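quick q for whoever's on today - can somebody do inverse folding on this one?? i tried earlier but teh output was garbage lol. tokens:
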């Protein structure tokens, strides 16, 4: 089966199935990315994060935003480099506005603020499938080629 360029980026992310928080990329270009992920009720962390009232941990939401906003966009921006890019998450400032319950689909959009010397900084936003804003802010990371 031939993968589209967007599917190839998701397939080549350096995360295992239990920690990959990208289902699909909807848009991707030199300036921005939009991707989605559905938080399934079977996710391992729901069994232990607020027993009987599961909520997606904020650190997992940040990871989802970083995988779509930094790792996917960074992979695209470094596609002309040899080898697979490696990612180092460096900093973020995220404001949380709402919670994410199991079986919620989130839409993450990120716009490149700058990409210089392998450092990518994006302005990022997460919304749910009903267009309710969940989180917003900025994050940055280093993109290194092997």
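ok took a stab at it. sequence:
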């Amino acid at each position: 089966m031939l993968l589209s360029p967007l599917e190839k980026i998701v397939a080549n992310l350096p995360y295992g199935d239990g920690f990959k928080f990208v289902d699909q990329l909807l848009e991707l270009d030199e300036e921005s990315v939009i991707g989605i992920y559905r938080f399934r009720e079977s996710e391992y962390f729901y069994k232990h994060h607020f027993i009987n009232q599961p909520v997606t941990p904020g650190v997992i939401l940040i990871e989802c935003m970083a995988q779509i906003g930094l790792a996917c966009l960074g992979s695209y921006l470094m596609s002309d480099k040899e080898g697979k890019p490696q990612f180092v998450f460096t900093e973020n400032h995220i404001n949380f506005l709402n919670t994410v319950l199991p079986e919620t689909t989130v839409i993450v959009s990120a716009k490149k603020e700058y990409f210089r010397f392998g450092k990518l900084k994006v302005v990022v936003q997460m919304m749910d499938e009903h267009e309710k804003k969940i989180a917003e802010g900025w994050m940055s990371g280093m993109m290194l080629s092997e």
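fwiw The chain has a mean pLDDT of 93. also The first strand starts at residue 24 and ends at 28. so keep that in mind when u check it
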